Amino acid sequence: MEIKTGEYNVWNEGSIIHYEGTLRLSGTDAYQPILELMQTVLAEKPQNLVLDLTQLEFLNSSGINLLAKFTIELRKHPDLPVKVLGSTKIPWQSKSLPNLQKLHKGVELVIV
Amino acid sequence: MKQFGDTARNNSSGAFTMRIVISDGPLGVNWQHASETCEFLGDVFALHHAKGGSDYTDARHSIIYLVNELLENAIKFRVPGAIRIDCSLEDGNFELTVSNDTAPEVATRFQALIEEIISRDPGELLIERIEANAADESSSGSGLGLLTLMNDYGARLGWDFSSSTSGAAVTLSTHAALTLN
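^ inputs. structure came back:
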């Protein structure tokens, strides 16, 4: 699956979901196709799940809300190991990603 | 006039400043203006703050996130009319004011949200709001942008509301200040 525009690109390789570019969509409805891609990966009952954000340069607060909502859904799968990958080179990730761990202790946050 | 939060402006008349007015002309104000404006201001003010390295990257990102969130709100909640953006930078203190007209009932709803935001710990309220949004499919997540600014970026926010020149609308000015590293 892949959602590709000139601004951003979201795609999966098995249970690894990659995010790339700048995501600045206008709200919950605009983010719905991306949420559906994430939910489809989850519905395939993977052994583990990785959200790779290391190429996502910018995410607005509506996008942070999307990640938060999905993280809350993951609490229904307490045995599924979840890893969120971030980069120290992209400032928003060290600032805002720790919020996801507050929502779901099972999230392993790796910012390198 | 009603005021909330931290509306004090500390930068002097010697600060590096810039004013941008997004006029509501024949092309209209649209979503794209938020990203174009925030990228431009991020580039200009970050370069004034630091010539390169991680200080530049951090400053540029924080300014872009701040300007974008306030402009997204202005574009979403405004009534027809211009959006005015005033920025200044002095000794690492970045100050921003975004002003636009809004409908009186929208202003009243927003004041209730502001009162909640400034009376609580932003970190706690952020998590509480996210939980509430996830439980309610129809929720748009309003307020999350302001809470991420306060909690994740340490932004100091203030608001003032006054009657618009035409009298039918409310002029809202949102003030923000950020300490750049």
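Chain B touches chain A at residues 31, 34-35, 57-58, 61-62, 64-65, 68-69, 72, 76, 126-127, 130-131, 133-134, 139-141, 144-145, 148, 152-153 (CB under 8 Å). Strands of chain B lie at 2-5, 16-22, 83-90, 93-102, 156-163, 170-179.
thumbs up if we can close this ticket
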